[in-house]
Amino acid sequence: MKYISTRGDKSKTFSFETAITSGYAPDGGLFVPMELPTKVTPIQLEYWSKLGYPALAAECLRLFISEDEIPFSHLQKLCQQSMERNDDGSGFENPENAVVVKPLGSSNAVFISELFHGPTFCFKDLGMRFVVNALSYFCNLRKQKITLVVATTGDTGPAAVQSVNDIPDNAYLSILVHYPHGQISALQRKQLTTVNSKNVKVAAFEGGGDDMDSPIKNMLTGKSTYKKELFKHRKLCGVNSYNIGRPLMQMVHYVSEFFIMITDL
Hints:
- It is built from eleven helices and eight strands.
- It has 265 residues and is of the alpha/beta class.
- The strands form three sheets. A four-stranded parallel β-sheet has the order 7-6-5-8, with helices on both faces. The protein has a two-stranded antiparallel ribbon with strand order 1-2.
- The chain is globular and about 50 Å long.
């Protein structure tokens, strides 16, 4: 599977590694799959329906990630690590059933999907933890330092910080998070600022929630003069929702919900 930019020449393709370790495409566009995978067969769906969430995630993601880039056995491990419960109690409450679907009322006509059973109690955990684990995988593979750059108005930052903090032994991975002063909840501010990790740096800024978007994009696409001066020995990577790894992993909860629904009905 190759990736292209939504803005660029469709004949210019990129690897999954390049896409996920960059965030934005070089021309400022978004990375998207060059083509959609072939249809999933009924036999595959029958097999998938019996899998726990980490195994299901690996099966879905293998359609978008070449075996040459991440062997399937490694992809399975990354998905398991992304959902597992840690010794300190952090992580997902029930990794095999990371998404909970409950009926609203007694009619079984309307259902609610609970996506908040991760370590920071928001659905961003579902996508972010895989992205960070995949970045950890690639920076260890290449012996390349990577700094994740994040702007947050509440949910994304804590999910990213917790994900990095749960990989304490990776000397190549670090994160810099920016949040608007006075504009996130007290819980989210504490989630950001009480993590004791040398790999995590957090900064508040004056302004609105979107004011850091352009500076970060300029840094990631090379339009900022600060990038070359301050980050000579490391790669910068954006992990907000424009990073292709986020929607790829987040699509898994829709597949999981489908199987839960047809089983319950």
